[in-house]
Amino acid sequence: MAETVNFTGAVDRELLKRAKVVAAKSETSLNALFNTELRHLVDTFEAAESAGNQNFRTLLDFSLGKIDDLTAMQTLGLDSQEDLFLLMAQAHLPMPRLPEQVTQSMVEELNALMR
To answer: At a CB cut-off of 8 Å and minimum separation 6, what does 69 contact?
Structure first.
């Protein structure tokens, strides 16, 4: 068995609550969920890197908000956002979140259309 170490990290309070619910419904621990997800991310990244495939790195950069969708699509040679979203799902990566200010602006624009 691999040696475990404790570490300190910060997580959004609401995300932690939701993660605890997922762990409880899965009859597992939050620690086990975290380890499983982190192991999947690292294993997938390392496998792609050792195969010389930079696609996962591009998808991860997009997921982390380091690059936008147009840059990711150009780098991956994609013509549509749908293809990008499918690759994100296949890579088991979450879609990036827009900054709160951008999201609020979009909500206001949609509300103005409804009036």
So the answer is: 62, 81, 84
Q: Which of 82, 95, 85, 90 is nearest to 53 (CA)?
A: 90
pLDDT digits (tens, 9 = 90+) for 59-104: 999 999 889 899 999 999 999 999 999 999 998 898 887 777 878 8
Q: Is 62 exposed, middle or buried (0-12, 13-18, 19+ CB in 10 A)?
A: buried
Cβ atoms within 10 Å, residue 27: 7
Residue labelled with tokens 């170490």: 5
Its pTM stands at: 0.69
Q: Which amino acid does the sequence have at 65?
A: G
Query: In this structure, are residues 64 and 95 in contact, taking their beta carbons and an 8 Å threshold?
Result: no
Domain assignment present for residue 8? The answer is: no
d(Cα 11, Cα 92) in Å, to the nearest integer?
20
Asked if residue 108 belongs to a domain, the reply is: yes
Maximal C-alpha separation, the chain: 61
In a domain, 1, yes or no: no
